[in-house]
Amino acid sequence: MTALLIGYARVSTDEQDLTAQRDGLASLGVAPERIYVDHGLTGTNRERPGLREAKAKGRLRGKQPTLNPRQEAHLVALHRAGEHSTAELGGLFGVARSTVYRAIQRDDARAAKTKAAASCVTKESAASTQSP
Q1: Per-domain residue ranges of the chain
Q2: Rounded alpha-carbon distances, angstroms, from residue 83 to 39, 57, 73, 122
Q3: Digitized pLDDT (tens) for each residue of the chain, 132 residues in all
Q4: What is the three-class DSSP state of 27?
Q5: From CA 50, how far away is CA 36, in angstroms rounded?
Q6: Spatial separation of the C-alpha atoms in residues 108 and 17, rounded to whole Å
Q7: Count of alpha carbons within 13 Å of 54, Cβ hemisphere only?
Q8: Are 14 and 40 a contacting pair, CB within 8 Å?
């Protein structure tokens, strides 16, 4: 499977030129029709049409997760067993401790959401059995 390369080039002022950025992206193997360009100005409230266009087409998704869902579940299970420290788990899975902490935090959030949903179902079930 070949990777689909997407390029994003941006200049902050009208005086700047995109040639060097386009050449750099082309040297990395990005096809010219896959290079999205912004001629916007610097600032958080400015429009960035090239980036917006790339996102709209689903071309920019951000960094992919280091661990797949199965690996993350395994990491959390090992942590819950209490046999490994976060540093050891990071070493075993080839990730930073911060990634281990985030995986545990995501699992805690999922568990709390599941528990809350189950609680709502139990309350609804109890209410329906009490109705004449």
Answers
A1: 7-56, 69-130
A2: 54, 45, 15, 34
A3: 567 888 988 887 777 888 899 999 999 999 999 998 887 665 555 666 777 777 777 766 677 888 999 999 999 999 999 999 999 999 999 999 999 999 999 999 999 988 888 777 666 666 666 655
A4: helix
A5: 5
A6: 48
A7: 19
A8: no
